[in-house]
Amino acid sequence: MFLSTNDGTSWTAKNSGLTNLNVFTLTVSGTSIFAGTQSGVFLSTNDGSNWASVGLTSQWVYALAFSGSSIFAGTSGGVYLSTNNGTNWNQTALINGIQSFAVLGNNIFAGTQGLGVFLSTNNGTSWTEVNNGLTSKYIRSIVVSGTNLFAGTSISSSFVGGIFLSTNNGTNWISVNNGLTNQDVYSLGVSGTSIFAGTQYGGVFLSENIGTNWRSVGLTIQTVYAMAESGTNIFAGVKDAGIFLSTNNGISWTCVRNNMTVSALAVSGTNIFAGTTGGVYLSTNNGANWTQTALTNQWIRAFAVSGTNIFAGTNSQGVFFINK
User: The whole model's pTM is what?
Assistant: First the structure.
């Protein structure tokens, strides 16, 4: 854990108690910060000054989600549930590797690595496979837009992937790939009524009619790992090519920082943070200019925002912190 109180000019190590420094995911609930690592879940209740292991030490934790007072951890060995802020964890009936979560009302959706989507309507007590209509069961991303659920999937030589839509809580899925010429989907983002899809070597696609039609909106030979929204600006983090900005809902894109692989993006007020394989970059003017912070030579996997505090989870050096 590292701390900066001067806009990233310098950072202070604050990894006390964080015994595994490979951080896959970060999430915030009130004053609690949870880190999913290669050795389970860690919790800090004092802005990262101290971390405590709160279980699942034999699991790689790829995803975390909150539903009311319940915390769900998606691991290589399935879904675990805590109802007491991580003090205790119980393995649920879903024992398959988890890539992503989505919460829609009282429904918890889990995207798996090859078995599709599972739904729990009773806080994880039981799970039901909800794959009717899915031709790809490798779920990379699930997002909610209103009452609609979108799943971004991968492709192979033996099945068709792309984007699927459910309007009835996962009971049925329909393929919504019209115009989606690249169906290997890495990331999904929602901006108002617009849905953005980042693909592998196919750039960004946009739908403005609940997935009925998609159109390419640039970066057409790029792999898009991350997307973020700041007001009317859309940012895309791209493999090898850097950070791209659209100010017109994806009609055109401008490269605002090149020659880097961007794996995570976060927005805090007027500040935009880009996590790369070489550290964190910061823009304070909506992407017009970027400066590298003092957090260098680190592969940033995830960000979490808690008030004015920004947390960055790294590949091998734990969690870093900045107050903006």
Answer: 0.77
CA distance 206 to 244: 15
Residue 237 Cα distances to 131, 176, 187, 200, angstroms? 30, 24, 10, 12
Q: Residue-wise pLDDT tens for the chain (324 aa)?
A: 555 555 555 555 567 788 877 788 888 888 888 888 888 899 888 877 788 888 888 889 989 998 888 899 999 889 999 998 888 899 998 888 888 999 998 899 999 988 999 999 999 999 999 999 999 898 988 999 889 999 999 877 677 789 999 999 999 999 999 999 888 898 888 877 888 898 888 888 989 898 899 988 867 667 778 888 887 888 888 888 888 888 887 778 888 888 889 888 888 877 888 888 888 888 888 888 898 887 787 788 888 777 777 777 887 777 766 666
d(CA 144, CA 121): 16
